[in-house]
Each structure stands twice: as C-alpha cells, then as structure tokens.
Amino acid sequence: MPEAQKDRFLLTFGLGYPSRAEEQSILDELPFARRGVEEVETVSSPAEVLELRSHAARVHVDPKVRDYVLDLAEATRKEPQFRLGLSPRGSLALHAAAKALALVRGRSWVLPDDVKELFVPVAGGRVSLTPSAAARGLAAPVVLQDLLERLPTPALARP
Question: Nearest Cα to 86, choosing from 62, 61, 69, 67?
Fold first, then answer.
C-alpha cells in the first residue's frame, strides 16, 4: 500500500495466528458463520457514535501530554533508522486515539501512559524504515518501542 494511504489508518497491529483449537473451531463453524448483512446485530446507532465522538473531543489533554505527543513525533523524524517519520496526521491520530482511550477507561483526561500504550499501534503503519535498517532485519515497532524507552515520560499532577 502506498505510504500516503497507510497514513489514513488510525491503528496498525498484528493479530497473529489462532491456536490449533481456535483454528479447528473456525473450520468446524465455517458453514454456519456465513451470515448475510441483514443478520448482523446492530450494537450502536449513528447518533450514539456521534455522541461518543463529541465526548472524546472534550477529553482534556494537559499541555505536557500534548508536548509528549509532539516529542514522540519529532523523535521519529530524527531517528536515523526511519526514512519517513510520523507525519502531522500521525500526531493528530495519536492525540485523538489517546483521548478516546481515556474516555473508554472512564476518564475525562489523558495520561501519558495512554499515549505510550498507543504510540506503537498508531505510529507503526505510518513510519518507514530506511533500506539499510530493513536489510538488517529491523522492524518499525521495535524502533518505535526503543524511542518510547529513550524519551522521558512527563509527570503530571493528578486532576
């Protein structure tokens, strides 16, 4: 997929393979699993989704946490293992995802740990290794995790 299109996905993550028992279950249930769209159960309405988006937009981000997002983005751009670092769209995605995670966890404020938890899944599909880094067998998530460990996490007073 072209780099410009990868940047449009909020998160990137691998599911891995199912266990043998899980795969057996998939094979056994396949004829029954083919359901039409009309059989898919609705879990939320468009109005509920818009309401949740509105709540997420109001989640507070301390300036120190915002600066942490910017520090992480800048670190990817300066990282010699990356040909392309995190774009401004990537910074926006990390910021928005952290707000959504805080909301899901019942908070009206973002913690630095929310940003840390989401950094690799958000940035993983948005950065590009240099050819030499890729040839050495490096993987973007490993380099991103190393950046997380090298950058100081901001300390916040509890709201």
Answer: 69
How confident is the model over 98-124, as pLDDT tens digits?
A: 999 999 999 999 999 999 999 999 999
Asked if 143 and 151 touch (Cβ cutoff 8 Å), the reply is: no
Q: Output b/e per residue, 119-135; b: 16+ Cβ within 10 A.
A: bbbbbbbbbebeeebee
Q: How far apart are CA 53 and CA 117, in angstroms?
A: 20
Which CATH number fits the domain that encloses residue 69?
1.10.8.80
What is the pTM for the complete model shown?
0.76
Identify each DSSP E strand in 37-141 by its residue range. 82-84, 128-129
Please report whether residue 26 resides in a domain.
Answer: no
